[in-house]
TrEMBL record:
The name this protein goes by in its record: Aminopeptidase N
Molecular-function GO term, any one: zinc ion binding
Domain Peptidase M1 alanyl aminopeptidase Ig-like fold: 460-550
Region span, Disordered: 1-22
Reaction it catalyzes: Release of an N-terminal amino acid, Xaa-|-Yaa- from a peptide, amide or arylamide. Xaa is preferably Ala, but may be most amino acids including Pro (slow action). When a terminal hydrophobic residue is followed by a prolyl residue, the two may be released as an intact Xaa-Pro dipeptide
Length: 877
């Protein structure tokens, strides 16, 4: 479909008012408490009637008010009653409904009518492939009915749903089912009651023609829980992995955090149209199909891990998020940072600690570090926002997890568990704050977090410089830290940074034990003696702190660490550092031939050791073989030239491919012998297989294309098939076209695999990737209405630096066109495309000007949503 827009039309639109800024310091409790909420839904895809009955009483902890303010968004009240009698003196204040109320307890009734089929934002109640479902976090409930739609108003919900049985045989809501029945007109009804008070953002309803994979779980105190995963009919065979993941999550949360599930049922529903990954609604998690459906033919090993991790994440929210929720949205990281840490720990236990840690750090550095150094930087507990949807960020989630992980590193696992136990005990049933969590950690784990609180209030990734002086057997480390200025925060204070280090004796290849240095001043010195020769420094082992490190170290020392470090992350880091140094120098120009050869030699030595080290498991080998991404490399430079980086990175890949052609071919052959299974060794083999192919194809595209085509044809699983197609997509050979056609034909019925087909082409190294994206936007399978499809084409493209940063600015224009076209349909998803353009300050001046130009073009659209308005104005600001 055509997404080009007509800017003149946009100019003719009325001038919007600037969306207001909401501030953390303005928090006040709500004047009313709502002990009970009853909702009756008369369901239809085009018309749903919602009748609410809210029991309200003055909140003793708040200033009394003569009016009840109920939030709304795009809805009108058909009727308002107080204590059973219709009233007419209600008023509207913008989108909100104001009901005058005398002091004391009342029952307020409201009727609204909504059209789920017209809801393209996918917030509130919407239709997805004939079914009805809801998404209420953060502020979607107010699109269903008028309500105090804020996380600190907790209520118990009883929900009745009535609808045609033929369309909606399955009717689900939160909690336990308490009733059902048939009506004579062909409709049926179900009643659900959730005994646990919850905020409105955790409400959910699903009505549709669905089938379920069912199982059960006995909790640690012996309660039976019925588990069900609801999907469309044909998808049932792809739900087993999700079910196994759910059961493992339930067991793990009991064992590791002592958390037991608290309802008789736990339901999961998969929907195709979803803005995010999944949602933790109490007892009724709603998932993007991408994070439920998986089998070997259609999902990669990475997809399997994604399902396991997201199932765990949503399940863990039952305690960190639902039993204890957030006082206000500024506290979002209270539930998200903590829950991400919990899901990361779970996945480390399931998949292996080292590799999972490397993957998590790669995400943090690839997404959160750039955010933290750009115009959208914010602390993990922000102070203000215009649209909360814009704050579901890598900073809140991933940096939030790192901050809590540091607490755990500082106090150790046992004390950490005491801290979390105290937090859960103390705040169960409450809407809490980050400060409550920190205090519970201080009291329970015995930490003093006075200075550590800066991690919650200061944005920006600290830069740590470590230099070593060696004299007379003594190694002294000077550690210097600085936190860069970020929007609205010019001056920063030093923060406590727990750095795990080890000093290696280069003669023996060993060290005498890991040390934890707590660096909490701008500059500090630590001395260690008894070294016969200058030791080699391994620092930030396990990525103990989310900082960037600059260390004085020789290439040969990095080669030594890449081969010998007993900390898997540090070993990976040594290899990355070696490559980063070389590619940053090479892409900023002026690298002599000798310097280039010396650097390549060092990289080659380390790479050769990695591909031939028989003591290394393949899963780790695959990690060590990966070159740093262009985005990460660009992040290392004040102002980057993405095409220079791309070119140098490709040159290095090709050089490695040629130099190690024989070894890589042998490696590819060896791992190709292994049978498919989901066991670790087999997964590791698949990772290495595609890595080896990547280098072989770089070194010799013609023969690489043949190997890739063979890998594609021989594949009995999606990991191998997608890996081969990914390599082919970047090549100009005939096999590229053949296999792309074959892939689409084979999987035409599977939306998630068709998403992969779009993404592979949009993220390819092919010189014409941009032309391909334009053509794909016209493909019959493309639509702006489905967020997965939009992301598969355009997010993949925006994350493909060599295509997005095309010299003439065409990539920027394409993304700006998309934002302008998507904003009126789905503002939340549209706003997520602004940040790639917002990186302009860190890109060389010619491109930077073109990026800015596109941001200005978007800003000129007078009808911009709050979401996109906020992101664009921050990016230009
Ligand atoms: N709380 C969810 C994330 C989420 C947030 C907003 C949504 O609205 C579209 C959906 C999901 C989580 O952390 O998984
Ligand atoms: Zn979450």
């Amino acid at each position: 479909m055509d997404i080009a827009t007509n800017p003149e039309m946009a100019d003719a639109a009325p001038t919007p008012h600037e969306p207001p800024v909401i501030r953390r310091e303005d928090y006040t409790p709500f004047a009313w408490a709502l002990p009970e909420t009853r909702l009756a839904f008369d369901l239809g895809v085009e018309k749903t009637r919602v009748t609410s009955s809210l029991s309200v009483e003055p909140n003793p902890a708040a200033e009394p008010s003569p009016v009840l303010r109920l939030n709304g968004d795009g809805i009108t009240a058909a009727q308002v009653t107080v204590d059973g009698a219709e009233i007419s003196d209600w008023t509207m204040d913008g989108p909100d409904l104001l009901v005058p109320l005398s002091a004391g307890a009342h029952v307020v009734g409201i009727v609204t009518e909504i059209d789920p089929s017209a809801n393209s934002q996918l917030m509130g109640l919407y239709a997805s492939g004939g079914m009805l479902c809801t998404q209420c976090e953060a502020e979607g409930f107010r699109r269903i009915t008028f309500f105090p739609d804020r996380p600190d108003v907790l209520s118990t919900y009883t929900v009745t749903m009535t609808g045609p049985k033929s369309l909606f045989p399955v009717l689900l809501s939160n909690g336990n089912q308490t009733g059902e029945g048939q009506n004579e007109d062909g409709t049926h009804w179900a009643e659900w009651h959730d005994p646990w008070p919850k905020p409105s953002y955790l409400f959910a309803l699903v009505a549709g023609d669905l089938v379920a994979n069912t199982d059960s779980f006995t909790t640690m105190s012996g309660r039976e829980v019925d588990l069900a995963i609801y999907v469309r009919d044909g998808d049932l065979p792809r739900t087993d992995h999700a079910m196994r993941s759910l059961i493992k999550s339930m067991e793990w949360d009991e064992q590791v955090f002592g958390r037991e599930y608290d309802l008789d049922v736990f339901n999961i529903v998969a929907v195709s149209d979803f803005n995010m990954g999944a949602m933790e609604n109490k007892g009724l998690n709603v998932f993007n199909t991408k994070y439920v459906l998986a089998d070997a033919d259609t999902a990669t090993d990475g997809d399997f891990d994604g399902v396991e991790g997201v199932i765990a994440h949503e399940y863990f929210h039952n305690w960190s998020g639902n039993r204890i929720t957030c006082q206000d949205w500024f506290q979002l990281s209270l539930k998200e940072g903590f829950t991400v840490l919990r899901d990361q720990m779970f996945s480390q236990d399931m998949q292996g600690e080292a590799v999972k840690r490397i993957e998590d750090v790669r995400i943090l550095r690839g997404v959160q570090f750039p955010e933290d150094s750009g115009p959208l930087a914010h602390p993990i507990r922000p102070d203000s926002f215009r649209e909360i949807s814009n704050f579901y960020t890598a900073t809140i989630y991933n940096k939030g997890a790192e901050v809590i992980r540091m607490m755990r590193t500082m106090c150790g696992p046992e004390a950490f568990r005491k801290g979390t136990d105290l937090y859960f005990d103390r705040h169960d049933g409450e809407a809490a704050t980050c400060e409550d969590f920190i205090t519970a950690m201080e009291d329970g784990a015995g930490l003093d977090l006075t200075q550590f609180r800066l991690w919650y209030s200061q944005a920006g990734t600290p830069k740590v410089t470590v230099t070593m002086n060696y004299t007379d057997g003594e190694a002294s480390l000077t550690v210097h830290q600085s936190v860069p200025a970020t929007p609205g925060q010019a001056i920063k204070k030093p923060m406590p940074i727990p750095l795990k280090i080890a000093l290696f004796d280069p003669a023996t290849g060993t060290h005498r034990g890991e040390e934890l240095l707590l660096c909490n001043q701008a500059e500090q010195r630590f001395t260690f003696d008894g070294f016969a020769q200058k030791p080699v420094l391994s620092v930030n082992r396990g990525f103990s702190a989310p900082v960037t490190i600059a260390r004085e170290i020789e290439d040969h020392e990095l080669v030594f660490l890449a081969a010998n470090d007993d900390d898997a992350f540090a070993r990976y880091e040594a290899m990355q550092d070696l490559v980063v140094r070389h590619l940053t120098a090479a892409s900023s120009g002026g690298l002599s031939d000798e310097a280039r050869d010396a650097a390549r030699d060092a990289i080659g030595t380390a790479f050769g050791a990695i591909i031939t080290d028989s003591a290394l498991d393949d899963s780790m080998r695959g990690e060590l073989m990966m070159l740093p991404s262009i985005t990460y490399l660009a992040e290392q430079q004040e102002v980057a030239d993405p095409s220079a980086i791309h070119q140098q990175r490709e040159d290095l890949k090709a050089w490695l491919g040629v130099r190690f052609a024989t070894e890589l071919a042998a490696l590819h052959d060896r791992v190709s012998q292994l049978e498919f299974s989901l066991e670790k060794a087999s997964r590791g083999a698949r990772k290495v297989k595609t890595q080896a192919l990547v280098y072989l194809a770089s070194g010799d595209p013609e023969s690489g294309s043949k190997v890739a085509a063979r890998q594609y044809d021989a594949a009995d699983n999606m990991t191998d098939r997608q890996g081969a197609l990914m390599v082919l997509a970047g090549l100009g050979t005939a096999a590229r076209t053949d296999k792309l056609i074959d892939f689409h034909r084979r999987y035409a019925d599977n939306e998630l695999v068709v998403d992969k087909w779009f993404a592979l082409q949009a993220s390819s190294l092919h010189p014409k990737a941009i032309e391909h994206v334009k053509a794909l936007a016209e493909h019959k399978d493309f639509t702006l209405r489905n967020p997965n499809r939009v992301r598969s084409l355009y997010m993949a493209f925006a994350a493909n630096p060599h295509a997005f940063h095309a010299e003439d600015g065409e990539g920027y224009r394409l993304i700006a066109d998309l934002i302008i076209a998507l904003d009126p349909i789905n503002p939340q998803t549209a706003a997520r495309f602004v940040s790639p353009l917002g990186r302009w300050r860190r890109i060389e001046p010619k491109r930077a000007a073109l990026m800015r130009e596109q941001l200005e073009r978007i800003a000129a659209v007078k009808t911009l949503s709050r979401d996109t308005f906020e992101q664009v104005s921050r990016s230009l600001g």
